[in-house]
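Whether sequence alone determines local backbone shape is best considered at the level of individual chains. We regard such an encoding as a compact summary of how the chain folds. The sequence in question and its structure tokens are set out directly beneath this paragraph.
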Amino acid sequence: MIELHRLNGELFLLNSDMIETVEVTPDTVVRLINGHRYVVRESFDDIRNDMIDFRKKAGYTCIPSGMPLESDGPQQR
């Protein structure tokens, strides 16, 4: 689960396994696999980093333990 804020500031938890897409329109729109959509305050990078952090803590094996987050500094691509 990741913490997100609606535009009115309301905090909620979202099952990140349900996320299908995250778009910047320029608002950040999270669309779930069931078709529900949430417009949130968090940025695209915040959501991506929160998802990676949650999956590391939850023990997902598809995330290498040494994978740096965007917040760890600039990366070369």
Summary: The mean pLDDT is 86. The chain has one helix and five strands. The first strand starts at residue 2 and ends at 5. Strands lie at 2-5, 11-14, 19-24, 28-32, 37-40.
